Amino acid sequence: MADLFTLWRGRVDENSRRALDVYTQTLPDFRKIADDSRARAAMMDFAVFIRKRTVAVVTENKAFTDVDLAFVEAAGRSRAERGLSLASQRHALQIHTSLTLKEVHEAANPHDLDDVMHTLAWLPPLGLAAQTAYTRGFLAGQEAFLPVVDRVQQFAHMLLTDDPVAADMAASLAMSLSGEWVVTVVRIPAGHPDRTDVLQDLLSRHWIPLRWEEPGEFVALVPDGGSQDLGVVQDFGDRVGLPCAVGAARGRIGELAETFARARQVSWAAPVRSAPSAVHYLTDLFPEISAARLPPVDRWLREVADRLAAGPDLVATLDALYRNDMARTQTAALLGIHPRTLEYRLRRVHDLTGLDPLSVRGVRILSTAVTRVLAGWETL
């Protein structure tokens, strides 16, 4: 009876043909590439090569050689140059892993337990080395046809989804990979700026991960400890010329999916401004975020805001007052009104709501209600 390695080696061609069929049936990108006879032959050659070398190195208790990995890297580069998407590339690697395990199982006999256990222990480091080389080649190949703006957005997506390939992508873009990041989300309630032009312009000034998200969100990742976050946001505001709200959160690499979710929540609670002048964090907007998560409280605040609508311009007046730390002279100057007009408006707030806008209680309630109004009453 033949042993595991003999049977496995003898089925390389058959397994390679099956693998190619699975790829082309499952992945439209592979199917499109395989329509070219030369490309299909190259794909078949690679499937045979990787299986032959895997059986050989597992049998001999060795690792892939530099020559092996160079061949794998070249295959990854070729696939990218032919238009294979990153999503298809990742799916193909998952399929290859599943097929390899299936091939070992099909070749094994009951008496091959020791060889099977040896193989299963040996495959993970081999697979990691091959996948790393393949991905490195793939990312290098993308440079030939994928615009740099798209590659930067791809990198940002990797960071925001805690994708371990982000490190390779950072290297291919010559972009620093910080351990700590500030994730900033800019919410644009209305308007559709020219996205590609905006990102190109921003990247010429700030070489950092940037990305458009749907709906109406721009995301920037700034290495923590720097001073770029507000600068990027202000440049973005200048470029798009649309009202927006800004929220941010800090997090470590590998945990940025959660950080992104927090930053997005803050942006939903942040006031919409015609020109962004501040980056808001959870500590800046915790009353508004808490209120938005409690419908009875939010309804009560809406009632307070409805009373302020009787005006004149009471929401804008309170917003300016609280943004200026209740300095009435500065507030009047900012609003372009006489100080006595400001005093009249503050008395009007008291008459309508029963709250003194300069009292502790008044500040707590009115500032929260005003910010909820300016945020558009987004539900978190």
Quick overview:
The protein has 380 residues and is an alpha+beta fold. It has 18 helices and four strands. Helix content is 67%, strand content 7%.
Question: Could you explain the architecture of this structure?
Answer:
The chain has 380 residues and is of the alpha+beta class. The chain folds into 3 domains: 139 residues; 130 residues, 2-Layer Sandwich (Alpha-Beta Plaits); 83 residues, PucR C-terminal helix-turn-helix domain (Arc Repressor Mutant, subunit A, Orthogonal Bundle), CATH 1.10.10.2840. The protein contains 18 helices and 4 strands. It has a 4-stranded antiparallel sheet with strand order 2-3-1-4, with helices on both faces. A hairpin with a 3-residue loop joins strand 2 and strand 3. The protein is elongated. The termini are far apart. 36% of the residues are buried. The mean pLDDT is 91. It comes from Kibdelosporangium banguiense. This is PucR C-terminal helix-turn-helix domain-containing protein. InterPro entries: CdaR-like_regulators, PucR_C-HTH_dom, PucR_C-HTH_sf, RsbRD_N_dom.
